[in-house]
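Lab notebook, bench 4. Still working through the backlog of constructs that have no structural model yet. Next entry is a single chain of 200 residues. Request: give me the structure tokens for it.
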Amino acid sequence: MKKVSLLIAFITFLSFSARAQVTEEIQDRAPQTSAPVAYDAIQEGNWIIGATLGNVGFNFKSDFFSLNINPRAGYFISDNAAIGTEVQLGLDIYDGGETFRYGLTPFIRYYFPEGASATGRWFGEGVVGIGGSSEEDSEGDSVFSGVWGLRAGYAHFIAQHVALEAILGYTRTSADISVGNGESGLNLALGLQIYLPGGR
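Model written out:
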């Protein structure tokens, strides 16, 4: 009986050891989902490049396709603060035509130290610029107009120089850009940003 109890204890020990080893190997092979580099990425002299993607959709009943993409580049003028510019590009394809939207909106972005973690930062952003549309003037919509907006978001660093961002913002324009039909409104976008170290 003593030998059987000893054998059961030995087998139990081996099974727990093997399970722990397999779990560690699986964790080592798992894709990287975060990196503790948030502070290093947003220091003075660094660069930010990337794009946000929003309002992608297709309506099967009306054959309406919409896509907005906003490439951007910026420079950190101090720790936590960056200035740059964003290009507004949008396309609507529908039965009977298409509308192309464009614009150039300089931005200023600030990363808040409050609520910061090693892998992410909250930020606020303001944009002011100009925008236009290939759509003919209808119901008071301008073909070319000013654009301004306020945004807030969260940057989660998935690698040393790469962050995924979720951004919620309010945009005001009458140029049929970003918010559709020349109206003010809220928009939600997802982005991928690359943070490049400066030549300090």
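Notes after review: The chain has a mean pLDDT of 78. Residues 13 and 33 are 32 Å apart (CA to CA). Flag for follow-up if needed.
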